[in-house]
What does this fold into?
Amino acid sequence: MNWKHFIPLILILIVFTACSSDMATSASQTLEQPMEKAEIVEDSDYGGAYAEAPAANDPIDAQAEIPQQRLIIRTADMSIVVADTEAAMKTIAQMVEENGGWVVSSSVYQYSDTAMTGDMTVRVPAEGFNSATEAVRGLALEVRSESTYGQDVTEEFVDLSSRLENLESTAVRVRSFLDESSTVEEALAVNQELSRLEEDIEVIKGRMKFLSQSAAFSTISIQLTPDEASLPVEVAGWRPEGVAKDAIESLLAFLQWIAGALIWIVIFLLPILLILGIPLWLLVRFLRNRRRRKEAREQ
It folds into this structure.
């Protein structure tokens, strides 16, 4: 019997071996994790968010070093009171963009007849997380609430790195069987298993990239409410500025009516008066002169 007929069985054994090694590596890392924590945690002014982690846009390498500091995803929720909602939102957006971040979403809602309330979500570099929240607090007349969260994903990132290394090694071994395949069935079996491994590799790489990007840029959600004391004066439904506005609008409407009437007189009525008035004036003058001559003859 040709030994090449055993290639599918060999593939199954290789994949089983890789999975077993993967599980053993994960279990070993889990047991060793508490000891590692005491050695690699290193606080900084911004909480040691993602130093030594892969850059957000760099490709994930299975041989990359394990992060030497904690890989932490930081988020914050803030509710503040401001004098002018729209002006404060523009200031926050400009501040975020100047420091390498961006605005994820921004919404403005009608709070009253003269004021707006708003919500916005921004992403800022993790090393500037604290300074960004302090800048937002500096714009507020009052901070109603503020909550910060930190999710440590170092263990998951290390586990994914090991799984990725094992899967890539297995894919290399499986790929070598393509040259040794002697039948179409054997080649299809190898390709099918290789496609499954490559799909798993891409999923892990995508998850690792997501963790790196999430740790590299922190998320801040901000709710902005206008200050009641800064709103226009309103007494029992009567607002002085509203009355003044109505008076100005009425004055402008009257002046507009006067200007419109003058335009109609000059363009429409004056030509008609000229067309009808000149012949009528000539007729009246002719009749008057005729009567005078008649009276002169009678005398």
User: Anything to note?
Assistant: The beta strands are 72-82, 102-110, 116-125, 142-152, 217-226. The helical segments are 7-40, 85-98, 129-139, 154-176, 184-216, 240-298. The longest strand covers residues 72-82.
